[in-house]
Amino acid sequence: MQFISEQRHDDGVLEREFTLGEIPGTEIPGTLWTPESAAPVPLILMAHNNGLPKNAARLVARARASAACGYAVASIDAPGCGDRPQSAADEQARTDIRRALQASEPVDDLFESFIGPLVEKAAPEWRTTLDALLELPDIGGPVGYSGWTAVGIRLAVTEPRIAAAAFFAGGYVPRAQREEARQVTVPLLFLLQWDDEGNPRQRALDLFDAFGTREKTLHANLGGHTGTPWFEVEDGNRFYDRHLK
């Protein structure tokens, strides 16, 4: 892990940009936010739904709020997202999805063919990132996960170091991860926007039912995809306080 920049904010949170890997064009870019603390702190892996960039304003605001509450928070760009190289196939897939959405055409098959492979590529990179982060002296455990449901399900099932997870129901979840949801056993907080224009409500409720954990909580709020109330960030931090501290 190589840190390439750092900035100390007024709230005491230290923001550092980093890269993982040495082969040009394949590096994993990320951001790490840490609080002012003399002791190792718990870690939250924070991923934006469907691979939006790590510097998206909503993600950065959530990350800084959690870091100010005493957590290390890390985010990385998924393959082909943010500043990472995008293949011609990825560009075409995104174009096809946008066109279908604008025309109110069925998009499930398009999402399946795009998001499914993206999860397969992103999950191993998150595990590599976790390995590197836990070697840092200011980060300890346990580890939580927040955000992108599809990749979060894969990590919650395959990564034993994750102790709790909060998922946002606003992104497409491939069929493989809907099946894997039955194997999720960590404490879970599931956030649903009741009027999310891009996410059928019943599909999200069915997914909540499918999660195998005995400790799961559903928070549903009125509003569209980007309308999650800020108090859910505060509730999310209390959720992590119960399970990571």
Number of helices: 7
Number of strands: 9
Q: How big a fraction of the residues is strand?
A: 25-35%
Give the averaged pLDDT, no decimals.
91
Output the structural class.
alpha/beta
Considering DSSP H and I runs of 4 or more, what fraction of the residues is helical? Answer: 25-40%
Order of helices and strands: EEEEHEHHEHEHEHEH
Main sheet strand line-up: 1-2-3-5-4-6-7-8-9
Described by strand count, sense and barrel closure, the largest sheet is: 9 strands, mixed
Q: Could you tell me how far the N terminus lies from the C terminus, measured between alpha carbons in angstroms? A: 26 Å
Query: Looking at the structure, what is the overall shape?
Result: globular
Number of domains: 1
Stretches where pLDDT is under 50 for at least 5 consecutive residues are none
How would you classify the quaternary structure?
A: single chain
List its salient traits.
alpha/beta; Rossmann fold; 245 residues; 7 helices; 9-stranded mixed β-sheet; 9 strands
Question: In summary, what is this structure?
Answer:
With 245 residues, the protein is an alpha/beta fold. The protein contains 7 helices and 9 strands.
